[in-house]
Structures are given as C-alpha cells and as structure tokens.
Amino acid sequence: ANLTIDPNWSTFHPGESVTFTCDMNEGKDTDWEYEIRRNGEQFIQSDQHKSYTLQPIQIDHSGEYQCSGVRKSFSLTKCSGTVSLNVTAAQPKAKLTAGPTTIPVGGSVTLSCSVEPSAGWKYRWWRRTSDTPEVQLTDENRDINVKQGGIYRCVGERGNTNFQSLVSDDVIITITLTSAQPRAKLTAGPTTIPVGGSVTLNCSVEPSAGWKYRWWRRTSDTPEVQFTDEENRDINVKQGGIYRCVGVREECQEIQINTVCTLDVEEKSDELVPVLSVSPSWLSPGASVTLSCDVEEPSARWRFFWYKAVPDPSSSSYSYELLPGSINGTKENSYNIHGQTNTTGYVCEAGRGEQAVKSKPKFVWSAEFHPGSSLKVNPDRVQHFSSDSVSFHCEGNSADWRLMRVSETGQPSFLNSSNWGTRKQSIISNWSDGGIFWCESGLGEFSNAVNITLQSINNGNVIIS
User: Fold this and answer.
1) What pTM did the predictor assign?
2) Triad 17, 23, 29: Cα angle to 5°
3) Could you read off the pLDDT of 177-188 as tens digits, one per residue?
4) Residue ranges of the domains in the chain?
C-alpha cells in the first residue's frame, strides 16, 4: 500500500487543507475498504473511498499518518508506510528583495518576493507613491521587473483556501535623472473656464521629435487617474482639476514632469449631477443594501465610482473613501453591500471621458446602537408635539460631535450652532419640522438613527446647552 498527500508540502498552517490518498496497487479501488491512522491510532474509520480531504487543518493534526486497506473478498489487509504532516501556528512573513533600489530613467529592476518554506506559493504585488493610492499589480510571479519608481510590497498566497502570509516590508524604488535628461513642460491658455467651456493643454519636450505623451488628472478629493485614450501633445479638457503630463519615447522611457497646471471650473449645472438612491433606507438584520446611481444623460460610456461618506471634523461636509472593487469604476450603475449593520452615508460618482461628478450624500439608517457613537432621545418616543422640548444626547469615545438631521428635503443639515463642537447635548423646543436625527463623531463614526414626527408645525429654534 502507498499513502500520499496533496499538496506535498513540508509544512502546513491552520486553515489550509490536505488530501490523503491510499493506493493498494492491487485490484480495483472498490475492492477495498480504507482506514487512516495517526500516530498509531485510528483517525479515519473504515471507508470505501481511497481519498480523504482534511479541511481545515488544525495544530493538533501534526503527526505520522499511515493507511491500511482490507480487501473485502479475501480478508486481505495491506498497510502503507508513514507520511509526516507538520502543522505550525507561526504565520510566515513575505520577504521582498531588490537589486539596486535606484535606477536610471529607462532602466528597470527585478523585485523578488519569497515565503519560507517556499513550496506552493503565488504572489500578489502592490505599488503606491506619496501622491497616489496603492494599486494591485496583475503579476502573480515570484519575480517581477519594474520600470516605475514607487513604494512596493507583496504577500504570499497558496492552496485552495487562499491562505496568506504576512505582508512584506515596503521597498522604495527611486528613478534618477541625468543632468542631460529633458523635462516635460505643461502649458495652458486660461486656467478658469465656465460651465460648458473648455481649455487646451499643451505638453512639450525639447527636442520635440518622436515623443508621445501621457496625461493624468486629480482633484483635492479624488485620486489621480491616467487618461487611457490620450497620447497627443495637445488635449482639450472641460473638467476642473490638477493636470500633469510626461513625455515617452524609445521603449517607454519616462521623463519627469516639470510643470503642474490647475484648472478651476465654475459650478456644473444640476442636470449633470448624478442622483444616488439606496434600498432599503432602513436596515434590517441580514439585509443587503443596493446603491443605484442615475444620470440624466444615460450612456454606455459612463463609469461609476462608489464611496463611503466619512464625517470629517476639518470641514462642514464629509471626506470620501472608495468602496472595495471601485478603484477603476464599474460599468453597472448599481453596487451591492453585504453585512452592513450601522448607519452609513454613501456617494456615487459618474465619470465619462474628462467629466466626473459626485452625487449628494444618501444615507442608510440603522436603529441599532453603535458602541463608539450613539444617540439617546428624551423623552424617548416617535411622535412629539411642536411645543415639546426634546433633548438629544450624543455618546461615545470622541471629543468632537455634531447632531445631524434629514428633513423632508432629503439633505442633511447640522443642528450644532458651530457645526462641530465638544458639547454633546442639544435641546429642541417649538419645533418647525421633524425628520431623521443622528450623531456624527470626530472619529468618523455614525450613531443609530431616530425618526421623529410632529403633530403640528410652529416656528422653532435650536438651543445648545
């Protein structure tokens, strides 16, 4: 008899899997009944299948394994030799190495990612810069050749359970310029354009023969994006933002940018602003949330970007975090979120060519208390008279708070007199309107939401106590 394991690794980690196969090398597989023993004791009882998959592997599965088979018709028993299974709790860490970390323009360097013991691993790679967010590379090889400067890191992954190593330390690759290296020059006519207008940007490198050009745009709120369909020296843009360019020739040799040009665009007309809707608007246990982004001018060219709104004490609005899988946008104008339990705000952005516009925030409400941020109302009831005085109290770990409300207009407004403040209690008397109330903390958290309706409407005011 012969016992084998697949994969045949020297070391396994908790959560991975291994398949034992017991071959009798005699008769048919169905002529036998199989048993697997560990350290001399029965591990798998008599079974008609010669293969058994152990998943997930645990620490106490380490040991010496042996299989035996009993032939049904002859009462013949055959035993295999032993096979060692070593399971360790230590999660290995990926190691990222490079030859030189400084390379000339047009040069390259090989990066190598390794995990010990080395069997069975494939690798994931990421790159970022001080100005751009991290992007995952498409390469899964142990060794990759790079021509771009930046901050690189890697992680190992293996098995059908996708067990991962710890992420490697960062390695910084720097591209150096020679004194004779030409520099790109970016120029523009006017830098302020009205809605519906445009401006021509010009990128040039001297001497000018043979160059193609790459273009990027970013804003103070959105990461930098490269124009994938532009290689011309002159481009016409209708969208405000911060633009830069680079000249490329001779096997994609990149030249450092010399000038950055900022364009300010006046407010776009409302008909171009996408409208975000959420379903459901109030969370129930186990429900998923669907975001839908509608544009007045439907087109197959739109791409949609999805963001979570994060309360930001440095402003009267929100900062925005891209949701998973949204860094390159989606063709579909809907996005599903699973497992949400807390009140959260969302924003969608519709982009087409050089045009990209964000929607107004839309909220998904939860009545469940959040341990880091909660809202308590006194008296605690859904319906109030317009003459009632009602106390709203924000509780949690943050030093900064603001009390928010969405009324029938659907847009959020803050009820603290100074937007953000350290005082946690607000008292409303002589109501003018009800709505949905919640607290936002300076740590970027939303509280539970409370829906309040009024019996009648009078003019009112807000008093901060």
Assistant:
1) 0.42
2) 105
3) 554 556 778 887
4) 2-85, 95-176, 185-259, 270-364, 373-464
